[in-house]
Write a structure and sequence with these properties.
By secondary structure, the protein is mostly helical. It is built from 15 helices and 2 strands. It has a domain of 183 residues: MetI-like fold (Orthogonal Bundle), CATH 1.10.3720. Keywords: Cell membrane, Membrane, Signal, Transmembrane, Transmembrane helix, Transport.
């Protein structure tokens, strides 16, 4: 177990270094000057050159990358050229907002996917199974921006019962909870169908196993067969899939946050990338890699716990 964790930790460090180097290099080949975007289109070339020199952007890329790497290792993520403040003052607040959104959506997705996936998988080919399968495919196929506009048209424009934006300001007409409804709904609709199909496929496979038929022949009720024999075995494969949704819910909700003007991590990353804010993009990229690799490690550990054959091997 320690050897496994050690290898994964080294893999995490190597991956974060590789991603940081690639992002840093990518900005070198991005059209446009950072100083020009900071000063605006009406600044003179002399002003742009002075700011470029003051920011140290005229130095070789490897020098700037090494300086950034050493500062990051000491906890200094640099200064944001877009927000005009330390990256530490921006990223953690935005990340906290996204974590609120992700936590609510993840709780709904886990409970609903297990319920609908098991309900569909218990009786393959039934009307309920077909209805859940079709609904899952339809919701997953609709892009986030399309479902966001559709829900806003109904609940904001037509019915007027929900706010159209989610700035997380409690001083206005709408409460914080009301502002979370539409973003969470879009995330759940987009992600739920995929997880439901994974749980359903695993449940269908488990229900054909010999030990399920044996349990039924022994006289156990259908409810006991599902809860005591089928459920745990059916959750082995979807467990990893469910954990991997954390990465999407935290770092992949750029469209949702942009549509509803939500002050979250994804929207911050988009704005920083458009403004060539290297320090902010680098810090956000490292955190995204950390979340991705960490969820994979936790998923592997959970898979080993649920599946004794993998654990003993």
């Amino acid at each position: 177990m320690l050897a496994f964790l050690g290898k994964r930790f080294l893999s995490l460090i190597f991956t974060m270094l590789a991603v940081s180097a690639l992002v840093f290099a990518a900005f070198e080949f991005t059209p446009g000057q950072v100083a020009r975007k900071v000063l605006g289109p009406f600044a003179t070339q002399d002003q742009v050159d002075q700011l470029t020199e003051r920011m140290g952007l005229n130095r070789p890329v490897y020098e700037r990358y090494w300086e950034w790497l050493t500062n990051t290792a000491s906890g200094n993520l640099g200064t944001s050229t877009l927000y005009k403040t330390e990256v530490n003052n921006i990223i953690w607040d935005r990340l906290g907002n996204t974590l609120i959104l992700a936590a609510v959506a993840f709780a709904i997705i886990v409970v609903a996917s297990i319920f609908f996936g098991i309900a569909a998988g218990m009786r393959e080919g039934s009307k309920l199974d077909r209805a859940i399968s079709v609904a899952s495919i339809v919701t997953t196929s609709v892009p986030e921006f399309a479902s966001g506009v559709f829900l806003a048209s109904i609940f904001v424009i037509w019915l007027g019962v929900l706010p159209g934006t989610s700035p997380l300001e409690s001083s206005g007409q709408w409460s914080i909870a009301a502002q979370l409804v539409l973003p969470v709904s879009v995330m759940v609709l987009y992600d739920l169908g995929y997880v439901v199909r994974m749980v359903r496929a695993s449940m269908v496979e488990v229900m054909t196993k010999p030990y399920i038929r044996t349990a039924i022949l022994k006289g156990l009720s259908f409810r006991q067969v599902i809860l005591k024999h089928a459920l745990r075995n059916a959750m082995i494969a979807p467990f990893t899939v469910i954990l991997l949704q954390i990465n999407y819910l935290i770092t992949g909700v750029v469209v949702v946050e942009a549509v509803f003007a939500y002050p979250g991590f994804g929207r911050m990353l988009l704005e920083a990338a458009l403004a060539q804010d290297i320090a902010t993009v680098e810090a956000a990229s490292l955190f995204a890699v950390f979340v991705t690799v960490t969820t994979q490690i936790v998923g592997d550990l959970g898979y080993m716990y649920l599946n004794p054959r993998i654990r003993f091997a």
